[in-house]
Amino acid sequence: MISTVATKPFGDQKPGTSGLRKKVPVFQQPNYAENFIQSIFDSLEGFAGKTLVIGGDGRFYNREVIQKAIRMAAANGFGKVLVGQGGILSTPAASHVIRKYKAFGGIILSASHNPGGPTEDFGIKYNIGNGGPAPEKITDAIFARSKVISAYKTVDTPGIDLDRIGAVEVGSMTVEVIDPVADYAELMEQLFDFSAIRNMFGLGFRMVFDAMSAVTGPYAKEIIERRLGAPVGTVRNFTPLPDFGGHHPDPNLVHAKELYDEMMSGTHAPDFGAASDGDGDRNLVIGKGIFVTPSDSLAILAANADLAPGYSKGIAGIARSMPTSAAADRVAEKRGIGIYETPTGWKFFGNLLDAGKVTICGEESAGTGSNHVREKDGLWAVLLWLNILAVRGESVKDIVTQHWATYGRNYYSRHDYEAVDTDAANGLMDALRVRLESLPGTKVGDLTVTEADDFAYLDPVDQSISRNQGIRILFEGGSRVVFRLSGTGTSGATLRVYIERYEPDANRHDLETQSALADLIAAAEELAGIGARTGRDAPTVIT
Ligand code: VG1
Ligand code: CO
């Protein structure tokens, strides 16, 4: 029943920051998905008879690729596949399922916050047995294999019914369709004080959760409304749709603007607003009248985590990606715990979490998580916020402003220039790179450069080195500008400019962010010539 199908390499199957992402029509080419999946299997050893977890964010083409992956897993010798009902598993839930059932690994189908639909984005990612994204050693091997692949293995069987819970046989492999929510919800109950949060809702606390027609809907419905007793209607857009209702499932101030406006609408605004992305690993947190930047959220969650039962013994350390603001560093300093600065992408946190060096990790791109899984986890962050709010009995605004008063405020913003010409973007980065050595001491406006480098990371656990992870330009007084090219886009290049200023003086904590950063924004333009090189006079998205 196993057949070997001849194929030819595609040459463009290089995994980016988080798996392989391409437009749907690219994935629909004959053998395209099969080549990549076979390249994954060919890069792994020792999985015969073991379990593979498969699930996705429900976007267009999800079910088709799941059927392909199941047949190929059977042909390649896996013993069992666990797949979420309807093909659904959020990224954090998939990570948990891999860990809980001691699977060999997992295939997650998602392009995260990128739009979905027949002409939009699709993606495939492989996660290893610790539940986390495959490290670079494996993604490099997958790419190398994809460039020479000549055949893939599959079995000739009809597709399985993904909607019916239970086990079926495919070849000599068992496929078990599981409830995608149950295991995850149970884990959340272990980590957080559900009765305290339930009481808070009982006292009239008002929340809005926008699932953005993406994968978190069923999880948020079950946990926030059913188990925590929030009124029905608290969770909005809770049905995962193949095209996310035509929107970008990206929980930021541009794509979740309605939620933002509601939270800023004055005294009648809800107490707490939150949203998550396509695959459920990102979070947006907004209090009544205040947006919490992801970098601040990381610092505040780390500083208050011990209020939740799952973290009552304290946290071992914090890790943040390099472009994430240093707000978390100040918490770590004060607590005397470790702080680690890693390249962008969750795969770099896995070793630190496995080694017990850190408990909480985060990225400026709305990702926060802990050692409960090996992915960032949108709903987890929201539940930890709820737990903290329930215990402290203060508003989000009070908690944030007190945090700034204690630790100082890191004004922070990211400017994205999307879909710019790839050569222009590379040219901009190259031009900065050649000037790095000569920049220290240079004056840009009133700012003086103290250091400039291309960030390289030495993993303290396995000693692997990752180079060219973003250009950092540091100024006197601790301000900085970082330039990076995105590794998740599917059209042209996306330039990300990260801007940060530290302000210790509590009397200056209520400035508008863009004006607080105005001189640094001007310095970024002067140093990199963004306008001249990209032809853009303003960023596409400011977060
Ligand atoms: C972006 C974010 C990064 C995140 C990655 C995957 O990567 O900046 O912080 O880890 O997306 O997140 P890039 O290379 O485009 O900057 V997700 O929620 O898209 O899986
Ligand atoms: Co995501």
Q: Can I get a quick summary?
A:
The chain is α/β, with parallel strands linked by helices and 543 residues long.
How do the helices and strands line up, and which of them pair or pack?
Blueprint: E1 2-6, E2 20-23, H1 24-27, H2 32-42, E3 51-56, H3 62-75, E4 80-88, H4 91-100, E5 105-109, E6 121-127, H5 136-146, E7 151-155, E8 166-170, E9 173-178, H6 182-191, H7 194-202, E10 207-210, H8 216-227, E11 235-236, H9 257-263, E12 272-276, E13 283-287, E14 290-292, H10 294-304, E15 317-321, H11 327-335, E16 338-342, H12 350-354, E17 360-363, E18 367-370, H13 378-392, H14 396-407, E19 409-420, H15 422-435, E20 443-444, E21 447-454, E22 457-458, E23 465-466, E24 471-475, E25 480-485, E26 493-503, H16 513-516, H17 518-528, H18 530-534, E27 541-542
Parallel strand pairs: 3-4, 3-5, 4-9, 10-11, 10-12, 15-16, 15-17
Antiparallel strand pairs: 1-7, 2-6, 5-6, 8-9, 12-13, 13-14, 17-18, 19-26, 19-27, 20-21, 21-24, 22-23, 24-25, 25-26
The chain binds alpha-D-glucose-1-phosphate-6-vanadate (VG1) and cobalt (II) ion (CO).
The site of cobalt (II) ion has 7 residues, from loops.
What is the fourth-level CATH superfamily of the largest domain? Alpha-D-Glucose-1,6-Bisphosphate, subunit A, domain 3
- CATH overall fold name of the largest domain: Alpha-D-Glucose-1,6-Bisphosphate, Chain A, domain 3
Distance between the termini: 52 Å
| Share in helix | 25-40%
Tell me the CATH architecture of the largest domain.
3-Layer(aba) Sandwich
Catalytic activity: alpha-D-glucose 1-phosphate = alpha-D-glucose 6-phosphate
Pfam families: PGM1_C_vert_fung, PGM_PMM_I, PGM_PMM_II, PGM_PMM_III
Cofactor: Mg(2+)
GO molecular function: magnesium ion binding; phosphoglucomutase activity
